[in-house]
Design a protein that fits this description.
Length: 338
């Protein structure tokens, strides 16, 4: 939509994903620019709700544009109103009271009420400052994407169904702006099988051809589609590059982790080998000590046996000597007797 409005020579204030404070600031900026504008176009795509509120004791239905920081979980309708923009008061009234010649409002948002059984209050809502200008007799066109209480389709592409069709018809030079919104309404009904029913409100003072003199809308649409596809291709390439870098980083981390685990495994194996080798050395030393002790014991026994044998031999020799002496002594005595 930003590209289309720029092509139609609007000075575009493009805002996306606004908080309540940012939405207030953006609308204040828009309202201030109305004082010096000839044509004004306000487009909103996002969350919207339709709520009932009391004004001077009278119940009125109002549409609210919801910021991204609104809390839908709260059970207080007043809290949601407090942070949201009121379409009728903050936008439509400001554009009605501006000196602009043509005012266009398109709202691609739901209009259902998430708090159907709750009462509401507007007393706590912040007030946006308004430009104090004399009301003009401008053409006012309001295109709502859904009927009262209805919901708006998000579509299958970048834009919702209503915005998609509105962009298509805005680029047709032969269409007057009121007809653009009427054709958009018909196209949305048909494409949604009448599940979505837009509501255009038109108060024309004369006819306006926003795309007159420009290249045909189909050519613009094709160029815009090419630009979108090219941008999408660039985004896809950037995403693929980011995904590839992420995969490479994951693979690098996995490789580093595997290397770390491998180093730990090798270190454990080394420590285990050293432990086993140390135990083997201790066992070998123990066996050697036992063998030396056994050999020493055998050597001691051998020496003891040799000593005993020597003692026995010495004793035998002594006995032989004694026997010889006894024998010699007996012979001498026998001779003496004779």
């Amino acid at each position: 939509m930003t590209d289309v409005l720029s092509w139609l020579d609007f000075q575009v204030i493009a805002c996306k994903d606004l908080s309540a404070d940012e939405m207030d600031a953006a609308v204040e900026d828009f309202v201030e620019r109305l004082a010096s504008a000839s044509y004004a176009f306000f487009h909103y795509s996002g969350h919207g709700v339709e709520l009932e509120k009391f004004e001077r004791g009278e119940k009125k239905t109002r549409n609210f544009l919801v910021p991204i920081d609104a809390n839908f979980q709260t059970k207080s309708q007043a809290n949601l109103i407090r942070v949201s923009l009121e379409l009728e008061e903050d936008i439509i009234e400001a554009m009605k009271n501006s000196p602009t010649e043509l005012n266009i409002i398109s709202v691609d948002a739901c209009r259902n009420n998430p708090f159907p059984k709750l009462a509401s209050s507007r007393a706590a809502r912040r007030k946006l400052k308004k430009i104090d200008v004399e009301a003009g007799r401008a053409t006012l066109i309001i295109g709502r994407a859904a009927s009262s209480g209805g919901q708006a389709s998000d579509g299958n592409g970048r834009n919702g169904l209503y915005t998609e069709q509105l962009m298509h018809f805005l680029q047709k030079p032969e269409l007057e702006i009121a007809q653009v919104f009427l054709d958009t309404t018909i196209a949305v009904k048909k494409k949604s099988n009448y599940g979505q029913l837009p509501e255009p409100t038109i108060s024309p003072s004369k006819k306006y051809y926003l795309a007159k003199g420009k290249e045909r809308g189909e050519q613009r649409a094709n160029r815009a589609n090419y630009s979108y596809n090219e941008q999408k291709s660039e985004q896809e390439r950037a995403r693929e590059l980011a995904e590839r870098e992420l995969r490479e980083e994951i693979m690098r981390q996995e490789r580093l982790e595997q290397e770390r685990l491998e180093r730990e495994r090798l270190e454990r194996e080394r420590l285990e080998r050293e432990r086993l080798e140390q135990e083997a050395r201790r066992a070998r030393q123990r066996r050697e000590e036992l063998e030396r002790a056994r050999l020493s014991e055998l050597e001691a026994k051998r020496k003891l046996e040799e000593q005993r044998l020597e003692e026995i031999n010495a004793l035998a020799e002594n006995l032989e000597v004694m026997a010889e002496e006894v024998k010699s002594c007996s012979f001498q005595r026998a001779m003496e007797f004779i």
